[in-house]
Write a structure and sequence with these properties.
- The chain is an alpha+beta fold.
- It has a single domain (about 5-105), classed as Beta Polymerase, domain 2 (2-Layer Sandwich).
- It has 4 helices and 5 strands, in the order H-E-E-H-E-E-E-H-H.
- The chain has helices at about 5-15, 45-60, 90-100, 100-105, and strands at about 20-25, 35-40, 70, 75-80, 85-90.
- A 5-stranded mixed β-sheet has the order 1-2-5-4-3.
- Helix 1 crosses helix 2.
- The protein starts with a helix and ends in a 15-residue tail after the last helix.
- The model has no long low-confidence stretch (mean pLDDT about 95).
- It is found in: Cytoplasm.
- InterPro entries: Iojap/RsfS/C7orf30, NT_sf.
């Protein structure tokens, strides 16, 4: 399974738990860190944790390795390292503060319209 397919699983899992403003950045030409960043937010630490749990469950069901999970205790910013895909799930105000989309503004956005239910 390639990194774009993994990103698609992540997006669908996050969307199923009602994550807000899901964005996928194509990092392939701007960073060696990962191929894709998936960024989403939620209104509470409980929802952030629920989204992270669903992402982990869905990728593990597809035999994708979860290398590490950081921030799960606080639920303000959970980072899930899937190797070539890095998932950031924030509480809204934390996402606004760190503004990863602006920090990585050189990374093109991936069109995910066909990945989520409208």
């Amino acid at each position: 399974m390639d990194s774009k397919e993994i990103s698609q699983i992540v997006v669908r899992a996050a969307d199923s738990k009602r994550a807000h403003d899901i964005v996928v950045l194509d990092m392939q030409k701007v960073s060696l860190m990962a191929d894709y960043f998936v960024i989403a937010d939620a209104n509470s630490d409980r929802q952030v944790k629920a989204i992270a749990d669903e992402v982990i469950d869905q990728v593990e069901a597809e035999d994708v390795n979860v290398y590490s999970v950081s921030g799960k205790n606080s639920g303000r910013w959970i980072l899930i390292d899937l190797g070539d895909v890095v998932v950031h799930i924030f509480q809204k105000e934390v996402r606004d503060f760190y503004n990863l989309e602006k920090l990585w503004s050189d990374a093109p956005l991936v069109n995910i319209d066909s990945w989520v239910e409208v």
